[in-house]
Amino acid sequence: MNAAPVARRPARRRATRREQLSDEVAGHLRAAIMTGALRPGTFIRLDETAAELGVSITPVREALRTLRGEGMVRLEPHRGHVVVPMTRGDIEDIFWLQATIAEKLAEAATERISETQIEELEQLNSALAEAVEHQDPEEVAFAEFAFHRAFNHASGRIKLAWFLLHVARYLPPLLYATDPSWGTDAVASHRELIAALRRRDAETVVRLTTGQFTDGAQRLIVRLEKIGLWD
User: Is the pTM of this model over 0.90?
Assistant: First the structure.
């Protein structure tokens, strides 16, 4: 009588792990498409991608199904998944949507944030500054994410913050994290943001918040132009 529940538990763990792998693979491929590493018209081979990432074919297949739903790849019968062309307008739309949501979160955070939460932002920005100084891209990306997660949480608008997180999947974090000038600018912008939060200056908080998305779009477009994506 006790055997059945025991037998089911590993299956659930395997399903969870497979889902996590699928998300990781989708994130890798999404970033490669957004940065032009995988160009429009490129076929993404299941076996090659699985070998490159050190996973089985199953999470790669599931990741491609996710990207197909996002319009980033399409399935061509008997040929496989191919990267769909991406325009400047597509990039501008993605960043516009993020900025629009972030503006509402910034307004709410300015009103609701506590002194304890502001101190937390100070600490998180110090961690970002340290990562930038050490030129550690992964730590820079992690610290930047942690800062904005805490800032958005302070808004109290959790559902809206979730939507922003969902759209933010299209941001290729390591593209920015490997750019020293971006890291320095981000730390300085965060310091100005924190100061504005302390004096409840919603106009400045919103300007700084939405400005980061404008800057992010410009940097990505410049990179894609340099590599000749639209030539």
Answer: no
